[in-house]
Each structure stands twice: as C-alpha cells, then as structure tokens.
Amino acid sequence: xxxxxxxxxxxxxxxxxxxxRPLVYLDNGASAQKPQVVIDxxxxxxxxxxxxxxxxxxYLSNLATDKYEAVRGKVARFLNAGSEDEIVFTTGTTEAIxxxxxxxxxxxxxxxxxxxxxxxxxxxxIVPWHFLRERMGVVLKWVxxxxxxxxxxxxxxxxxxxxxxxxxxxxxSNVTGTVVDVATxxxxxxxxxxxTLVDGSQAAVHMSVDVTAMGCDFYAITGHKLYGPSGSxxxxxxxxxxxxMRPFLGGGDMIREVTRDTxxxxxxxxxxxxxxxxxxxxxxxxxxxxxxxxxxxxxxSAHEGALRDYTHDxxxxxxxxxxxxxSTTKGAIFSFTLQGAAHAHDxxxxxxxxxIAVRAGTHCAMPLMDHLGVGAxxxxxxxxxxxxxxxxxxxxxxEFCHELFG
Length: 406
Prior knowledge:
By secondary structure, the protein is of the alpha/beta class. It has helices at about 5-10, 35-45, 60-80, 95-105, 125-135, 155-160, 180-190, 210-215, 240, 280-295, 295-315, 345-355, 365-370, 390-405, and strands at about 15-20, 20, 25, 85-90, 115-120, 140-145, 165-170, 195-200, 220, 235, 255-260, 265, 320-325, 335-340, 355, 360, 375-380.
C-alpha cells in the first residue's frame, strides 16, 4: 500500500519551513530530495566504513568494495538489464552520454554520419553530439514534437537514413513531461542496424524501466533525480556495444598492467571506470534504489499519475495560464507562463515567498523552448512525496500572481 504520510515522513527536509511557510518542493525535475535512509547510509559510510575500493586487503577496504559493487547489481535489477556487467558507474547522465560520445561514437563515426535527435532533448544529450559535429563533421538530424508536445515515434524512425549511426532520444521531456515511446523507436532502429541511446534522467524515477524489453543499446540514469546523492549515476551498455568501445579515461582500475611501453586494459565494465570513484555517492544511490523498489515503481507511478491528473485539472481552470505541452502521455511535470508581462523569474520569486519551490528559465532545453516560442517558463515538477494539497497551494499562489500582475 502506498502510504503518503509515511513516505513524507521519510524525507526530513519536507518538515521545514521556507519564508515562514511549509515547504512545497516542486523542483524535482532538477533534483529530488533525499530520504533519511540515504542520508544515514552516507553518514555511516563516511564516519565508520570509509576506505578506497578494489585496492586494499584490509577490512574497511573489503567492506567498502562489497557495498560499492553491490550497487551494480541493484542498478541492473532496477533497469532489468541482462547482467550487472552491463552497468558502468558514472557521475550522472551528463558523463554517461559523453562516455558514449567519446568511447563508442568518436572512433566509429565518419564525416557525414548522422545522429538523430528530438527537439525535446536536454543539453546533456545535445552538446556531446555537437562536439562530434564540430570536430568530425557529424550531421545532427532533428525531429520536432507537435503542438501538444507529443513526439511521433514514426517521425523519428522516418528520420533514420543510410548514414544514421545513432538515435539519441529522451524517454521523458524535462520541460513538458511528455513520455516518448522509446521501445518502438529502439526496435525499429535495431532492425536497421542503428544504435540507440535513451536519456532516462527524468523517466526512471517515475516509471518502471525494462531496458531488455526496450531494446536500447545505452540507457543513462542520474542518482540525484532518483532520491540519491549528486555525483552518482550509471549507464546500461548492451554487451555487444561494450565490445565496440575504447577506454575514455585512463588511470587506476581500468588497467590490468602498465609498463614503459605497453598498457593492458581491464575488462568491462571496469575498463570504463578510471580512478577513485564516488564511493559513498554510489552507495547512497544504491540505497535510494532499494528505497524506491521497496515501495514499488508501479505504486509510485500510480500515485504520481493521479497527482498529475489532479494538477492538470486545477491548472486547466486558470484560463490566463499557458501550459506548454498537453500530451495525453506525460509525467507530472508542468511548464507554464502567465499571459501578460509577468516573467517566469518573477513568478518563481513570488511563489518562493509562499514557500513553493519551482524552477524558472530554459531548463537546459533551449532548442525546445525556441520550438515552443517561449523565452522562459516556470516548471512545477512533482515527486512521489508530493500531494494534492500541495497542488492546491500552487494554484492558490498562481492566482495571487495573476491578481498581482493584473
């Protein structure tokens, strides 16, 4: 049973006040809050169990290594990967996508080869491909969403041509909340011999993910959106693609032997994990995944779906509010502007005075904002610990903004 009272009690920050108002945290699309179990695990890791991993034979090193490596299996279960050896630890989705750009794409692509992107991509899934465009002459092919914010999977498939080498696509827009049918895209791309990378930063925290059924080659997640610490993350890499990758960073752990004249690399996934990792951060992410899987991703999705529908109906009653994207398949993310002269930053500041945390700006998605014809929006993004009462407070605050700006 999904117990919202208990869940809210697990997150200590939700009990605090901001500007003498109870905190209403609706900036989860940027970063989620942390449950006490994650905070405790990290405190214990630093205060009682810290040592470097993989390199020591003493008790603390073995303990840290066991806890750290156990997270690989947790990520594999969370994503339903075929093996934990298909999981590479990263500092987050940004590093994960850059890893694929440098280690898999750069050695294989030729001038004129294509990467297919949707207009909804986060900058983290755009800039690494621009690097290849600038340095190698790779071509970026863009697929637009429609007026509702929906992305037709067939339009993405139709964009695949004889020079396409990769389709890099988000599973959920961080601006509109639109959920993309990535499975249809991935299977069609695979049938054409084209690799697929899915940005799961927004989606993985809100719904069950099955990379095996999805048929993708790469799937990236970031820990700080999954109720874990910043500086943690991972990427699923299909075993066949791992065999095609060269090392990205050089240093400890990714080697077997180094001499004056030669270097022998470790096997994957260690081959792509150089240097001392974020040990405690990854352990914290593992605890966060345990926490989510203990509640159940289907239960989380059902709660957030009801919250999405309730918030949608409340916002629809504000005829002076412009909501960007009204897809019928979306998460509980709402980007909006007020009719008139009120800037998104002003709205965000006023909401903050009432204890409500939202995001304002371009949300690291400038191509999408340009496509939507807006310079900036406010974004209210919900999580499993949010409630309909908080949605009501958001609407009340927006009505106050409307009155204030006339």
